[in-house]
Design goal:
The complex is a heterodimer of chains A (406) and B (295).
Chain A (H helix, E strand, L loop, with lengths): L1 H5 L1 H4 L6 H10 L1 H13 L5 H19 L2 H26 L7 H15 L19 H18 L1 H4 L4 H21 L1 H4 L1 H4 L7 E2 L2 E2 L9 E2 L2 E2 L2 H25 L1 H11 L1 H6 L4 H27 L14 H14 L4 H21 L13 H19 L3 H20 L1
Antiparallel strand pairs in A: 1-2, 3-4
Helix pairs in contact in A: 4-20, 5-13, 6-13, 6-16, 6-17, 6-18, 7-8, 7-10, 7-16, 8-16, 13-14, 14-16, 17-18, 17-19, 18-19, 18-20
Chain B lengths: L3 E10 L2 E11 L4 E5 L6 H8 L7 E6 L2 E2 L5 H4 L4 E3 L12 H7 L9 H5 L3 H20 L15 H13 L5 E5 L7 H17 L3 E5 L3 H7 L2 E6 L2 E6 L1 H5 L2 H8 L2 H7 L6 H11 L7 H11 L1
Parallel strand pairs in B: 3-8, 3-9, 6-7, 7-8
Antiparallel strand pairs in B: 1-2, 1-4, 4-5, 9-10
Helix pairs in contact in B: 3-6
Classes of the chains: A mainly alpha (406), B alpha/beta (295).
């Protein structure tokens, strides 16, 4: 063990031993600090804020230029980003491997639908339970329910480690599949499902209701345009919360528990509480993503098998986002979501024929799975820091070239 | 007043008695060394004091407070700081971030406070980061604050480990083999750092160490364990010439004949083997800490 460190003196800074760079980039934490320092040193102090403002302006202006179907693709990516941020906190920062993310997505979707008013599209079905809360409150309620459910899982998440926790959480997905089928009064059943209420806030509906009422710069704002802003706000809030936590006291505690439990507890971190806490937070993120998903789909429909909207495949897709993005990195989670969820939607929009390369059954979804499968292998082999690390390297290179250019 | 009292401490793992009725005290402003051959129970003793293991019987007092059986995470706020055998740092985090972990018990705020970057949290973190940087400066590693811990030379990593323990503002600092894996120059520097902790910060130090040169050079008191029992106790000169201690390390004359010729230098060989194996004493923490560094 001392070998890794005793090689250190020769290896110096960033480009040290393989083990060194792997771990240094994996957290995103020390890496960004270093990148920030480099920016400061090279006088590119304005580069980062300027890039952030530019990105926000572009994101805010997109609904004026993109068609509804492209906007919906973007919204799908945002759903993925929210869920992936939650999962990267759990897996990357706290070191708890979970395959149960899809279950919490499902619970979030059901909670939102049950808490919000019944849109009355199928009034003949009087069995459906609906609490009639304002939709925005139902959204918050869905997050809280999922977080509490995550907390209730603490006796398991606090004790079981590694691959065993992954298997234990995978069981949740099957539980969700079973409950979705059985609790028809909540879920609407696998046959027809049920409709969720449109998202609204203080009487403003994020839906197609009278689109002529809201015209911005000649563009009528319908559901796709309105939801874009709602989802963007939720994603940004989720992003900033996670980033703040990771950089602060809770993030340090999570990483300490991940890296060495005895060390973490000696430093004052209560292990069980820390592990349960991050699991609850991650579940809350999944719940938010689930509620967004059901609003986006416009229908809550429990899966007919363990592979579906809330199935194993979804858990694995989220795992892929987190790994490809770079474990523990919040921006990485967003990039991972853009790749895994974005590629699928982009292919659906651009590929008109039912089969790609003329191969029957080679659908956009299938191709995406091939691509992110390959991406996982490439990341694990060549850049364990994922897209986040590649991004950092690019900005560092950019900073040094602008420095040279002066 | 005595800062740390170990009172008739016994630890059993199944049929194995790792510590047998051991008592000693650590006085304020002293460096107290705990030595002994492999498997003597030094690490077990450390793990019981720092709350990682439970004692079978006996008491541990920190100042006046009985801390026997107190969970490890509560001790950090009570004045007990600890470093680890192989500098167990969070490899991907910066040095400052690692040292800031030592402030965990002295700061507040969970996910919401941290996530929302509430003004009081930001102020608190800034204040504590300044203190952490001060501690790093004290140990001469303040130029490394923003380096990822995984890129540090081992000697610096061990200093970060000690800085983190000091960041808990302890009254007693437990150092688990601070010189293990260090070269001669680094060991001398470590000795000086430990002296500085005692003299400038007035913190009592209890250390486990195999490097006899270091122990005899800096310790005010030495406690020797062998097979879980206290063999000798006293100032270094006295302990060095104690026949029981020599027997513990080198075996008796009859043992020597059985196992073949050994010079007096054989202790060094034994200690080196121990270091190379990460001092594989039968405890889970050693195994865990190994894991932490190599990642």
């Amino acid at each position: 063990m001392s070998e890794t460190f005793s090689q250190g003196p020769g290896s110096g800074t960033g480009s040290g031993t393989a083990a060194g760079t792997d771990t240094a980039t994996a957290d995103g934490d020390a890496g960004t600090t270093a990148a920030r320092r480099r920016n400061l040193l090279s006088g590119n102090r304005m580069l980062r804020p300027a890039a952030v403002i530019l990105l926000l302006v572009v994101l805010l202006a997109l609904p004026l230029y993109l068609s509804a179907s492209w906007l919906r693709a973007g919204e799908f990516v945002m759903i993925g980003a929210v869920g992936a941020i939650g999962l990267t906190l759990l897996i990357g920062q706290a070191g708890q491997l979970s395959l149960g993310h899809a279950f919490f997505l499902f619970v979030g979707a059901v909670s939102y639908t049950v808490l919000a008013p019944d849109p009355g599209l199928r009034g003949e079905n009087a069995e459906l339970v609906s609490l009639g809360w304002p939709p925005a409150l139902a959204l918050v309620g869905a997050v809280v329910i999922c977080a509490l459910l995550g907390l209730a899982f603490a006796p398991i998440s606090g004790r079981v480690r590694g691959i065993y926790l992954a298997v234990a959480t995978l069981a949740l997905v099957f539980l969700g599949f079973y409950l979705g089928r059985e609790l028809v009064s909540l879920t609407g059943g696998t046959g027809s499902g049920r409709a969720p209420a449109d998202l609204s806030l203080f009487g403003f509906c994020f839906c197609d209701e009278r689109p002529e009422d809201l015209v911005v710069l000649g563009v009528p704002f319908g559901e796709a345009e309105r939801l874009w802003y709602a989802f963007l706000a939720l994603t940004v809030v989720g992003y900033l919360l996670a980033r703040g936590a990771v950089r602060g006291r809770p993030g340090r505690a999570w990483r300490a528990v991940r890296d060495n439990e005895a060390m973490a507890s000696v430093m004052g971190v209560p292990l069980a509480r820390s592990r349960a806490g991050v699991f609850a937070i991650s579940s809350g993120y999944a719940g938010l993503a689930g509620a967004m998903l059901v609003v986006w789909f416009g229908i809550l429909k429990p899966d007919e098998s363990e592979i579906g909207t809330y199935g194993i495949n979804v858990s694995i897709a989220f795992l892929a986002m987190v790994i490809v993005g770079g474990l523990g990195s919040i921006p990485g989670a967003v990039w991972g979501a853009a790749l895994v969820y974005g590629l699928e939607k982009v292919l659906e929009l651009t590929v008109t024929s039912a089969s790609i390369f003329g191969i029957v059954g080679f659908t956009p979804v299938l191709l995406t799975q091939f691509v992110y499968g390959a991406a996982i292998i490439l990341v694990v082999l060549f850049e364990p820091g994922g897209l986040a690390a590649i991004g950092r390297r690019l900005t560092a290179a950019l900073a040094s070239t602008t420095e040279k250019g002066r | 007043m005595t800062v740390l009292t170990i009172e008739r401490l016994t630890v059993r793992f199944g049929g194995l008695t790792a510590l047998d009725d051991v008592s000693f005290t650590v006085e304020p402003g002293t460096v107290h060394a705990l030595i002994g051959p492999n498997g003597a129970g030094k690490s077990t003793c450390f793990n019981v004091i720092s709350g990682v293991y439970r004692a079978s019987s006996g008491r541990v007092l920190l100042g006046d407070a009985d801390i026997t059986g107190t969970p490890a995470h509560k001790l950090a706020g009570m004045g007990l700081g600890r470093s680890f055998q192989s500098a167990t740092l969070s490899p991907g985090s910066s040095v400052l971030d690692n040292v800031m972990l030592g402030r965990h018990a002295r700061t507040r705020g969970g996910f919401w406070a941290g996530g929302l970057r509430l003004p009081w949290t930001v102020r608190e973190q800034r204040r504590h980061a300044a203190r952490a940087a001060e501690i790093c400066a004290f140990l001469g590693i303040d130029h490394l604050l923003h380096r990822p811990a995984s890129t540090l030379p081992y000697g610096d990593a061990k200093r970060v480990d000690i800085a983190r323990a000091l960041a808990t503002e302890p009254t007693v600092l437990l150092l688990d083999e601070p010189a293990a894996g260090l070269n001669a120059a680094e060991t001398a520097g470590m000795g000086q750092a430990i002296r500085d902790v005692r003299e400038e910060l007035d913190i009592a130090v209890l250390l486990v160490e195999h490097d006899m040169g270091l122990v005899m050079g800096i310790a005010d008191q030495v406690t020797v364990l062998d097979f879980g029992e206290l063999v000798a106790h006293g100032p270094p000169e006295q302990v060095q010439s104690d026949p029981d201690v020599i027997r513990a390390y080198l075996g008796s004359a009859s043992d020597l004949e059985e196992t073949g010729p050994h010079g007096l230098g054989s202790y060094a060989t034994r200690a080196e083997t121990a270091d190379a194996r990460g001092s594989g004493e039968a405890d889970g923490v050693a195994a865990d800490t190994d894991n932490g560094v190599t990642r």
